[in-house]
Design goal:
By secondary structure, this protein is α/β, with parallel strands linked by helices. It is built from 42 helices and 17 strands. Strands 2, 3, 5, 6 and 7 form a five-stranded mixed beta sheet that branches. Strands 10, 11, 13, 14 and 15 form a five-stranded mixed beta sheet that branches. Strands 9-8-12 form a three-stranded antiparallel beta sheet, with helices on one face.
Length: 959
């Protein structure tokens, strides 16, 4: 540090001489203090002045080892509380608070400058210092006022306390040196104090707030503690100093503005009645984190930022590291805009730490890994620069210095040998941050050309005839497309909803239409896509936030056109459920559906935001979960990211996740009402449970986009005393029946978000006339002694999918026992063929030019029946062939066991895959699974040949 000594040696030596002899001895006598004081004294004249003013301060810090220690907020509060117990007047309170503040500021600043504390620790301890000071002053003045007026109480006599909300950096545990602290005061309810000289609660807390502010903010001969800013409260300076929770909630509901949502993101109960403060934050959460998307916030937040930029430019403050380009505020905006937009739907975004929020955005694919690194590193550097600027003289500034000596002071404190090296590195970092900011907010014009003014006019209905046609031709539409496109546009512009739009929504729609037209020009399916897009715009026109989403995110519009062009089914999903448009923002997630474990975690995160007992909201969130993930799977399917087997895997995992959560919530509700089911088995206590058994496509892991769920419910209650253990006891069979009924209701109820799944329980014992829930033992008895062959065929595809895992092994044992019975092969084959012939008679397509992929001759059902017959006929000798429930692996096992020929099995499996893939594609095209009979002609012929050879060897031909 030779440069340090050259530039600041005289200043350092003079500072040392101004200290008492004892303080000098403590500094030079302690190795760490001796090594660090030259840089500390050079970087912070404030520290020097504080040590001169408060003798023995540094001696105390060194002797107590506090200078070399970090400690938490609890210790700070206890230390200050101990100091204030000896204070009996306001003058003493002010003096004690300021001396305590000076001691801790010196300790924190020294540790920061010496490199003993990282930025996170420094900001956190400055925040804890503010928390301790406000809490200490609040407790002192509360006790004083209560001696005079009594304890504030509500109308029921319950005590009421003041809640102090810390806003901004204080709320986020990110306070810097010389920060203002932004506070809001609130209290739970109206009432009055219980003293002889009574005040209503509002007056009491107003007086308490005024005294608290004076204790912290007043400038005395000892300085101040923190500058207090109360302007963020409802109605600002014109509003009451303290409001009830109800008044706060009413204000934000009726009058809250976008910048107030922004301010409340970091709000934190930091002093007073903290438990009541958390209740208040829960009440305000719906205002801050809206349940539905609000992409209009993009424009409003950008206006806020642009206003700040204009002010900075006007005042010549481009060197402001907080508000200038690439400054602290831009990093915060990048994170907080997504908190406002998506926080109501993504619990991970409901955090106060900006660094944590940036990590969430990177996890969501909104920021790249490189951008995350730039922003987190940049934020750390900028906050350190801000702290060094303010710690120099305890002044609230974010301006880089102009004087060469002060520039060098800052550069040295940041570890640079000279100003040029420091400012070059800082400017480079800020430029990178600003570049990311511009990408996210699109503040500056990008390189794309401006919208054609003629196309704008056309979309407003102002152009006609040749001019209108030439405008479309100039935009790239083909001659044969021009007239139909103009007709579609004219029809859309005459829609009634357009004339009822708000000014904001109408302006956004008029901006969006030219981009929509331009986006479809490259597609050969223009005349198919436009009606789908116009139907969507008609649906979302009244919710202009969705128009804003597409305006603010051109890649999202590109994804929309791409998906709608590929699938009328997806177009229909987006039109029915516009909330899904949010998924278009993250292309990486859109085309990479989550796996089974990720789906369960995602659903639990979504439901974590729902209050217990809010069944309507739970049902909506479950439906939204299904719709979001159905869209992801369909998008990946269309783009050939997933093969057919994985498409069905994802759709099946999705259903399993939903069933599991619906089961858990239904069970929880019944347990709260009746207690848990219990029984005695052979004299031992046992806790029985419920299992959800999936049949058909669910059991066979072959769900499609419109599949219903074939389900059987089983419980394992047995023995004696089969009843619940709660106050309202019911027998276990009744308990499990009610759980099942609740599950079915929550799955099939039609809400504004649609239904979850259609549920079919007719495969249970005795079908529609049987009990909705069977015991495992009665199910086993039915399957062994009373079931039809077709029921055993169905059992071949059955598996445990949700409920209590403890029942899974028991069910699998019953399934294996039933399927592995020795059977008369000839009689079995006759039964299977007879059932298939009945199905053909009822379901076969009469038109010979058409083929139904599932039920037609040579289709999916024929392959399934071939597999099921051979499983039932040979499982007694080859039990391994029933271990799986899906047709593909069952075919493989039949081949490996020598029951089917290897080539025959492989070809049947390939045909099965191809037919299922065609069925999925038809579903995405919103078409029935009825195709031209010439399709799959060779494949169907092969299936028919296998059927005749193995199922009807004596028949000359299939009927």
């Amino acid at each position: 540090m030779s440069l340090l000594h050259e530039a600041f040696d005289s200043e350092i030596q003079q500072a040392l001489l101004r200290l008492s002899e004892q303080d000098r001895q403590y500094i030079v006598g302690h190795p760490d203090a001796a090594r660090s004081y030259p840089l500390v004294f050079a970087a912070s004249p404030f520290i020097v002045e504080s040590l001169v003013r408060q003798k023995d301060l540094i001696s105390d810090l060194i002797q107590s080892h506090d200078l070399f220690s970090s400690y938490d907020g609890i210790r700070l509060k206890k230390s200050l509380s101990h100091c204030l117990t000896k204070i009996h007047d306001e003058a003493g309170l002010l003096r004690a608070l300021r001396q305590f503040r000076r001691r801790e500021m010196v300790r924190i600043a020294w540790r920061d400058l010496a490199g003993w504390a990282d930025t996170t620790e420094t900001l956190r301890e400055l925040t804890w210092l503010a928390d301790a000071a406000v809490q200490g002053a609040l407790e002192w003045w509360s006790s004083q006022l209560q001696l005079r007026y009594g304890q504030p109480r509500d109308s029921l006599g319950n005590p009421v306390g003041l809640v102090v909300l810390g806003m901004g950096k204080l709320g986020g545990h990110e306070l810097n040196f010389s920060s203002d602290i932004d506070l809001i005061f609130a209290f739970d309810d109206e009432g009055e104090t219980d003293g002889a000289k009574s005040l209503d609660n509002s007056e009491f807390f107003t007086r308490l707030g005024q005294r608290l502010i004076r204790a912290i903010d007043a400038l005395t001969e000892d300085g101040f503690v923190f500058r207090v800013d109360m302007r963020l409260r409802p109605w600002g300076d014109e509003g009451p100093l303290a409001l009830t929770f109800e008044q706060m909630e009413l204000y934000y509901t009726l009058h809250g503005r976008e910048w107030e949502r922004y301010a409340l993101i970091k709000a934190r109960p930091m002093a007073g009645d903290l438990a009541a403060g958390e209740r208040l934050m829960q009440q305000l959460r719906p205002f801050v984190y809206r349940r539905y998307l609000d992409y209009g916030a993009f424009g409003q937040l950008r206006e806020m930022k642009s206003l700040i930029e204009r002010e900075m430019a006007k005042k010549g403050m481009r060197d402001n590291i907080k508000l200038g380009p690439g400054g602290i505020r831009e990093v915060e905006f990048i994170g907080q805009v997504f908190q406002l937009l998506r926080g109501g739907r993504e619990a991970a975004l409901q955090q106060r730490s900006i660094l944590n929020i940036l990590r969430v955005l990177a996890d969501d694919g909104i920021l790249s890994g490189e951008e995350l690194h730039t922003l987190t590193q940049g934020y750390d550097v900028l906050r350190r620069v801000e702290n060094r600027l303010q710690a120099a003289r305890d002044q609230q500034t974010q301006l880089l210095p102009e004087a060469p000596h002060e520039q060098l002071r800052l550069a040295l404190s940041m570890g640079y040998a000279d100003w040029n090296a420091f400012i070059q590195a800082l400017n480079h970092l800020r430029a990178e941050i600003h570049h990311i900011f511009r990408r996210v907010f699109r503040v500056l014009d990008d390189s794309t050309p401006n919208e054609s003014s003629l196309l704008d006019e056309l979309c407003r209905g102002a152009l006609h005839g040749d001019v209108a046609e030439n405008t479309l031709l100039a935009e790239g539409f083909r001659q044969d497309q021009v007239a139909p496109v103009l007709a579609l546009l004219q029809e859309f512009l005459q829609e009634r909803f357009i004339h009822s739009l708000s000014d904001t929504a109408h302006a956004r729609l008029m901006q969006l239409l030219p981009r929509v037209l331009r986006a479809v020009t490259a597609s050969p399916q223009v005349l198919e896509i436009l009606p789908r897009l116009f139907a969507l715009l008609t649906r979302i026109g009244g919710r202009s936030v969705y128009l804003a989403l597409l305006l603010e995110n051109p890649p999202a519009l590109d994804q929309l056109v791409r998906l709608i062009a590929s699938s009328p089914w997806i177009a229909g999903q987006l039109t029915r459920h516009p909330i899904l448009l949010d998924e278009l923002l993250n292309a990486r997630a859109l085309y990479a559906p989550p796996n089974a474990d990720e789906l369960r975690l995602e659903l639990r995160d979504m439901l974590a935001n729902v209050a217990d007992g809010d069944i309507e909201r739970q049902m909506d969130e479950l439906r939204r979960f299904k719709q979001i993930n159905m869209l992801r799977v369909a998008a990946a399917d269309i783009m050939d990211v997933l093969p057919i087997m994985q498409v069905s895997d994802h759709l099946t995992w999705m259903a399993e996740s939903v069933l599991d959560e619906v089961y858990r919530e239904s069970l929880r509700e019944l347990v709260q009402r009746h207690g848990s089911p219990a029984c005695l088995v052979n004299g031992q206590a046992y806790a029985p449970g419920l299992a959800v058994i999936g049949y058909g496509k669910l059991g066979g892991l072959e769900l499609g986009y419109g599949s219903d769920l074939d389900i059987v419910f089983l419980h394992d209650s047995a023995g004696e005393q089969q009843e619940t253990d709660g106050d309202k006891t019911i027998d276990n069979a009744q308990f499990f029946a009610r759980v099942t009924q609740k599950m079915i209701s929550r799955m099939t109820t039609q809400t504004p978000a649609g239904i979850l799944y259609e549920i079919d329980t007719r495969l249970r014992p005795d079908g529609a006339s049987g009990l909705l829930v069977s015991s495992l033992s009665s199910f086993a008895d039915y399957q062994l002694h009373h079931a039809w062959v077709w029921e055993h065929q169905a059992l071949a595809r059955a598996r445990w999918v949700a409920g209590e895992p403890s029942i899974k092994a028991a069910f699998e044992a019953v399934r294996r026992q039933v399927l592995c019975q020795a059977r008369d092969a000839q009689g079995l084959r006759a039964s299977v063929v007879e059932m298939r012939q009945k199905m053909r008679a009822e379901l076969d397509q009469k038109d010979p030019t058409k083929f139904h992929i599932k039920t037609g001759v040579g289709g999916l059902t024929d392959i399934e029946f071939i597999v099921q017959y051979h499983l039932l006929a040979y499982a007694h000798a080859h039990p391994n062939i029933v271990r799986w429930t899906d047709n593909i692996r069952q075919l493989q096992d039949l081949a490996q066991s020598g029951i089917l020929e290897i080539e025959e099995s492989a070809k049947l499996a390939e045909i099965y895959r191809r037919l299922r893939d065609r069925g999925h594609r038809l579903a995405l095209e919103s078409r029935k699974t009825l195709i031209d009979a010439q399709e799959f002609e060779q494949e169907r012929a092969f299936v028919r040949e296998v059927w005749l050879r193995r199922m009807e060897p004596d028949a000359a031909s299939m009927p």
